[in-house]
Write a structure and sequence with these properties.
By secondary structure, the chain is of the alpha+beta class. Helix content is 21%, strand content 8%. It has 1 helix and 4 strands, in the order αββββ. It has a two-stranded antiparallel ribbon with strand order 1-2. Strands 3-4 form a two-stranded antiparallel ribbon. The protein starts with a helix and ends in a 12-residue tail after the last strand.
């Protein structure tokens, strides 16, 4: 009888551990907290200062990209391909939760992306 009680208790602890894991998954489902925004495609790493043009910010706050975008429909904004890891950039990236630097880097990009990272069609520039 004691053996069955231990088996049931062990199974219950296993189930609770599984529930705890699911709760952590939902808590981690928000947008990355990055000083200059995050790339608009997985793995949503923090983008370096200067990757996004000014239209990606509203009052200094990043409007989001990927599944966390919260701007207007049909939006295309400027990005700097020289700072895009998918285009070969291997320089530094800020860490999640890092504070922005005092001075901002001048934006130099000419490409345009939608909030999911797709290039703008010709004529949308």
């Amino acid at each position: 009888m004691i053996r069955w009680g231990l088996i049931v208790a062990g199974f219950g602890m296993f189930m609770l551990a599984g529930c705890r894991h699911v709760a952590v998954g939902f808590a981690a489902g928000g947008p990355p907290v990055c000083p200059y925004g995050y790339y608009e495609a997985p793995p949503y790493d923090c983008a370096p200062d200067g990757y996004y043009g000014p239209e990606w910010f509203d009052g200094g706050v990043f409007i989001g990209a990927g599944p966390w975008y919260h701007g207007r429909a049909g939006f295309y904004g400027h990005v700097d391909h020289a700072l895009d890891y998918r285009k070969g950039y291997r320089g530094p990236h800020p860490a999640r939760g890092e504070a922005p630097a005092q001075g901002r880097v001048a934006f130099r990009g000419t490409a345009m992306h939608d909030p999911r990272g797709h290039e703008a069609p010709r004529g949308a520039r």
